[in-house]
Automatic annotation (TrEMBL):
Protein name (record): Transcriptional regulator
HTH merR-type domain location: 2-71
Annotated source species: Lacticaseibacillus manihotivorans DSM 13343 = JCM 12514
Cited InterPro entries: DNA-bd_dom_put_sf, MerR-type_HTH_dom, MerR_fam
GO molecular function, one term: DNA binding
Domain of life: Bacteria
Gene3D superfamilies to which the protein is assigned, alphabetical: 1.10.1660.10
Keyword Lyase: no
Signal peptide: none
Keywords: DNA-binding
Length: 145
């Protein structure tokens, strides 16, 4: 079955302009055109588009996604190259995930601090420490009025 760009936009949640951008960026060379010149997406195209969106959502650069698609288009002999590309990207994603987990832990710590019965005292202590550090280093102190 062939899908129009409008149908694909609805199915994927992507804007039509995004799909056109992906096409112009060389990410959709597998999408055929019908006799009128309109893009005609297949179920297989939607599966590849799903992978493209996954890679984009995890921060892969357009050039690297294009390279991945080129490897897909080159056929099954490129499986090892695809694996290497995705393994390297996975390492980046895991590192980012760990960074986000550390940041989330800091946010949770602050939320617990602000929710504690002695929140004002803890905030005052934090404020005093920041203020003293500025004065100690001879910097302007935005913490004092």
């Amino acid at each position: 079955m062939a899908y129009s760009i409008q149908t694909v936009a609805k199915k994927t949640g992507l804007a039509i302009s995004t799909l056109r951008f992906y096409d112009k960026a060389g990410l959709l060379p597998f999408v055929a055109r019908d006799s009128s010149g309109y893009r005609a997406f297949t179920d297989g195209d939607l599966a590849l588009l799903h992978t493209i969106v996954c890679l984009k959502n995890t921060g892969m650069k357009i050039a690297d996604i294009r390279r991945y698609i080129e490897l897909v288009m080159a056929g099954p002999t490129t499986a090892k190259d695809r694996q290497a590309l995705l393994a390297a990207h996975r390492e980046v994603v895991v590192a980012k995930q760990q960074e986000i987990a550390r940041s989330l832990a800091e946010i949770d710590y602050k939320l617990q601090m602000y929710a504690s019965p002695d929140a004002e005292a803890k905030v005052a202590q934090e404020w005093a420490l920041a203020s003293a550090d500025k004065e100690k280093n001879g910097l302007p102190n935005p913490f004092t009025a």
